User: What shape does this take?
Amino acid sequence: MIVQIRGTSGSGKSYVVHKILQKDLGWKPITEKWGKINRQIPLYYISGDGKIAVAGSYGAVCGGCDTLGAAGHAFKLYELLKERQIKHIVSEGLLLSEDTKWTLEAKARGWNPKVFHLTTTKDVCLKQLLDRREKSGNTKPLNKENGIRRMAVIEGLSVN
Assistant: This one.
């Protein structure tokens, strides 16, 4: 089963996965060659029993499938993990939150993806974005209108 946690910027997607990774399941970060590059950050994390994988890297506050580069890359990682007999894949990222194509492809392959969409309010998302930027030392002003437009796009997407 593939579990995709979706939501807008600042909705708490990475927070949820950080909480999963805090569970004592013997998580091991896997760094390996990915495409043409040898990744210095984890490609994914695997539970001690080898049944659960979390896609992407979580060395920073944000992470997940956005560290892979594109939603299509997440799909390729799903293929790799399925070949390795991983039973459950947890993934999230802003790029995945805007995806329908690859989720529909996963459904067509019988991978049983489950999408959980976080419904954090716009005000909370904007506050969390501002807090994250402040913590990272980013002093550029936040374009709230652009953020709100992107939130509306993500909220309007659904995969049935």
User: Anything to note?
Assistant: The longest helix spans residues 122-136. The chain has one domain: 2-156.
